[in-house]
Amino acid sequence: MDAEALTEQEKNCLLQIARQALEEAVGQSKPAARVVQSPSARLQQSGASFVTLTINGSLRGCIGALEPYQSLIEDVREHAMAAALQDYRFPPVTPEELAGIQIEISCLTRPLPLDYSDAEDLLKKLRPQIDGVVIRDGIRRATFLPQVWEKIVEPAEFLEHLCLKMGAAPDLWRHRHLDVLVYQVEEFREPV
What we know:
The chain has 5 helices and 8 strands, in the order αββαββαββααββ. The chain is of the alpha+beta class. A hairpin with a 2-residue loop joins β1 (48-55) and β2. The radius of gyration is 17 Å and the shape is globular. The mean pLDDT is 92.
């Protein structure tokens, strides 16, 4: 989603698709059993998204893609199901949890390399509350959406947690020049 912002109708359509996919994933509705408003041409274009599930503000699942490889509408559908069933940090969502789950969708811009010289320069170039960050070290990689800045506000701590998520020592970013990419998101959620 590198272009202009989604319309409210497009956001509502994606939220409806995600809710239907979530219900299908936990066996509470049959595929295509519910009618979804016709998606706009923009939603049928290539796009990357993350779908986050929360219960009472606590994370319950989050799965997504950094690069677009299918239509945005299919990306949201796939990641809503995956967030419910395949996030390794949580057991699969149960039918009893459905009513308490709030869906949040993040549509991503393409990640771009962040050029930096050393650890201090990296800290200066990160933009809290704005940038999602991807770090890569060989075949390992991890990302945090920009929303994670709400919980981890200090850039050094943000990078430490990102290294831990990648399965590395928390101070790896201080000692090794990692590949760092940044992206932005358009984030929206179901009403509470």
